[in-house]
Design a protein that fits this description.
The structure is a single chain. The protein is of the alpha/beta class. The chain contains 15 helices and 17 strands. Helix 9 crosses helix 10 (about 280-290) and helix 11 packs parallel to helix 12. The longest helix has 15 residues, at about 205-220.
Length: about 425
Amino acid sequence: MKNILIISRIDRIPYQISKYVYSILASKGVVFMGMMNKMTVADIDLKGKRVIARVDFNVPLDENGNITDDKRIRAALPTIRHIIDQGARLILVSHLGRPKNGPEAKFSMKPAAERLSELIGKEVQLAADVIGEDAKARAAALKDGEILMLENVRFHKEETKNDPDFAKELASMADIYVNDAFGTAHRAHASTAGLADYLPAVSGYLIKKELDVMGKALEDPERPFVAILGGAKVSDKIGVIESLLEKVDTLIIGGSMAYTFFAAKGYSIGTSKYEQDKVELAAKLLTKAEEKKVNLLLPVDNIVGKEFDPNTESKAVDSDKIPDGWMGLDIGPKTVELFSGAIKDAKTVVWNGPVGVFEFERFAVGTRKIAEALAASSATTIVGGGDSAAAIEQMGFSDKITHISTGGGASLEFLEGKELPGIAVLNEKK
């Protein structure tokens, strides 16, 4: 059963139940169009309204607190500009880092507020708190077209617990809720989901773009449709693999995941990292791929090393001949050719996860070659964040990729067919 479309109000079922329903149906290859039928900022009158917008300004900082990469801020600019151009009063809420014990100066939103001010060309106020006196006073005093950023929402433990009282306090400052933080849309937090219990809720342009591009790839892809999955653990991507086997023509598996599949095929894998308790599952997935007539490609050769070390002795060996005492660290040259050929022939390609130990420069070659192949492809190409996106960015190929997702975890769960709480709660188009 492939490409079944369900347009429904399943997202209005209580969360724990809908989560279960989504997971069952997604494993059967169902595509949920209900998540893509959401109202956006373009569908609602904003003039004179106080708008609280959840953005993802979780940007990397250097040791001096300077932003090293502002792409997440830039990604939110279309939505921010639209809101203030419509004459609304904008209140921004985001997290930054992982504060553990309340307010910490190093996790302040101040650098993000200052950078946004530079990019937007107007003052961005920064509140001293999130739901305290300063935040509420500044929000109440906003004039049309002005912008206020609240302090780090994760300074309150109630945020990640989706505490209803905390969400209600946040909502009390605004008339409308806009979610444009795709990177956190898979989390049911107060600022990503809870706000929708108290305010009309719509998406921003970034979330709309994420859903449009990835939704099209899953709903009605141009074929051949190729998916590339890398990373360390089969257990992290079981649902994604099962879901994609219902949709793709070719599934490429690399990274440490591949060695679990090699073990399932009876290959000697030396000291390669793998999941012993997932070998039987990998065997079942190989069988399922055959049954679904999906071309499942595993590495045919590997760059192996004596140790998990950037300077270890290394060599290329065939996948079924990894010597004892050696571990797989990257795909080999024959595999690069095999995978690149599949990408070249594709019309739609989705990539999530490196195919080697990307953090070691010597063993990042395979991942970079995959990035090169995507950049050279004429297909619709979608990269699902994380190290895959980093490889694309580092090589200067960003402008040659159709879409680079702003949310690694969220894009993975979307590909799996899971409900994304931060999107499910948004109002549907009439």
